[in-house]
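Dissemination and training. As part of the outreach component of the grant, students in the summer workshop were shown how a complex can be specified as a set of sequence lines and then modelled as a single object. The example used during the hands-on session is reproduced here so that future cohorts can follow it. Participants entered these lines:
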Amino acid sequence: MSKTTSRSRRSGIRRGEAASGWLFTAPVIILLGVFLVVPVLMALWVSFSDWGGRGSPFSSGVNFVGFDNYSAILSGGGLAEQDFGMSLKNNAWYVVLVVPIQTAVALGLAVLVNRAILRGRGFFRTAFYFPSVTSSVAITVLWLFLFSTSGAVNKVLSWFGINGPNWFNDPSGIVHNFLGLFGVKNGPSALTQNSLLGVSWWDWLGGPSVAMSAFVIMAVFTTSGTFMLLFIAALQNLGGDITEAAMMDGANGWQRFWRITLPQLRPTLFTVLTLGLIGCWQVFDVIYTGTKGAPGKTTLTPAYLSYKSSFIDQDWGQGAAIAFILFVVIVVFTIFQRWVLRERGVSKRRMRLYQPSITAADEARTDNADSKGALR
Amino acid sequence: MQRPTHRWLAGGAVAVATALALTACGSGFSGSGSSDGASGKLTSSDKALTVMIGSSGDAETAAVKSAVSDWSKSDGTKASVIAASDLNQQLSQGFAAKKPADVFYLSTDALAGYASNGSLLAYGDQLSNKSDFYPSLVKSFTYDGKFYCAPKDFSTLQLIINTDMWSAAGLTDSDIPKTWDQLQAVVKKLTGAGHVGLGISGEYARIGSFMTQAGGNLMNEDSTKATANSDANVKALDYVKTLLNDGDLKYAKDLGAGWGGEAFGKGLAAMTIEGNWITGALKSDFPNVKYKVAELPEGPAGKGTLQFTNCWGIAADSPNQAAALKLVEKLTSKDDQLAFSKAFGPMPSIKSAADAWKSANPELVPFLSAADYAKGVPTAKGSADVVTDLNSKLESLATGDPKTILDATQKNLEALLK
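and obtained this result:
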């Protein structure tokens, strides 16, 4: 291969191809370089420096401080660590709730909308996709109105005799509230006395605050439409033959969905989960326009905290460090999820169902072994 | 938000890249530019001035614009006013790029951050009207022993009373509470169908007034020592907790309002503790509510309340500091401050304007009287975060332990001073 290339490079007609190649890709390389690579490297430097926000981070007065910024966030014992722990806790619950729910809802909608017998499919498709097209700032503002104390949501709840919570002002965790129904107000001391990142285990397990839950509902509402579109595209790509074969084998609708359709959607599922995961960990705009971390810091997220430490508190090093820790968190989660969704070889036990001859031989061997065991 | 773009990262990246680009083609990478920061030597040039403000609305923007253009005409230096949509962010970008606005609004909690990284010019001692400012305001803008910037205006907290509910409860002017005990009795009487006696925002910026009445505050006046868990503060929170548990005092959010003024305007609370900005809000949103302003009651240590203020910052990297200083002197002059006050409500920061203001706003006199005893909020770098943390704990003060809450705040404040 390399031989042909080197020969072709020498052989007149293809000379200068490499140069044109570089020329044509140059705009993108320069754009990515100036707006992505250089800033990311600069931010990386800032996260290891004591830059105070005045002038260039590369000027002479800025010093390398090693892992000081990182250790202040991860083990400082101060407010910075507490805030970061709190933001991780909030965002982790947000991810744990939003990603599965939005994926399930998107898949459900896609399957419904994809059915040939449904009248007005186009209408429903547009309707479900609409929230995704709308600006997230506009939806956040709408949400603040809907979920205000005397807002529409609480009004509807009151028809059912439910005294709605004070949504965006309620910092109590929903798991705590649920336990509170059974009279559990304080956690066991094993959980309350020990802490991770300045937040006690009891608080880590407390669930998202009521305020964060409203954001969870909003995230599901706004993003399910986008991912529904991905699922529809994937569903339309599936051939009908396998499903028909399953039908002939007597599989009912439920079995066909779980055993035939869903496994074929694995690549799309991976895409949707990854995009969902990344988007959820980076949630910033709704927090910025909505609550700015209030109430009681329970809607603080690492992305917003990074912004706040930098621009408001002038702790640029810590702000940059948070951004890079967040990056690591996202990468770890994505790798983990890739590992969970990996293609697995069919297990031997399963294989038996499909290959009668092996099954027979296997069974004979097991029988043999069994009888031997019995003999002994 | 869920969208797979790295939007916030990209946003930050663009900002940093812009900073890089601007520094690269601007004043160069090294050194502190044209100013050596030493007092007495102001940069001077014929460059135009940029004034950046965080405006509360059109009235404020228009008032500042007209004042600045008046100065511009008489002085001959060009000047333009920018109303920032996010003041702190836009200031930060300017400082990082070494192309900051020359003159700008600066809040007390942002002062320490910008002063410590050298972005600000400490020009306070060069003001010709320096001695005219209230001393407590000067303290709020003193960092590391240097008087940084001229207080723009200020506000204080006082007691706002709904006069209809007041008389409906059979109370008269002589019942206006002078002590904590009297306040407790009055709020009990005022609590009735559909409203509580006192409704306030559940945060340090309101509850802190009780701390000052008890003789405490989160930090000393220079913000060099943390005093959060003092006995006075514990006493203050114990008192507030009692009112909360009696059901006579409620936080605005528990009443279904965003802040004390809204709870008051909607008639959910017969009294509230707010600053002089409430008059504007009541006029525009709740014009039918009749109210009067009274001084907060005296606590164990006498009168006390909190004050809030902003100053006119001047950038250390401004190429025309001399003109900027002259502009600030004009903007803090008696005439301009009274004009600002008329346009959007704050109180003048200079003593010489007090009498004129009092006669123009006779019903708001208690706010200005507080200038003699009001205390500022902490200004140490990072103290705003500690206060936010304290606020989140004050939300559950009714069931919490004041001493524990204040101990945590003390620990956080002490960490700032290291």
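The two ends of chain A are 63 Å apart (CA to CA). Students were then asked to discuss how this feature might be tested experimentally.
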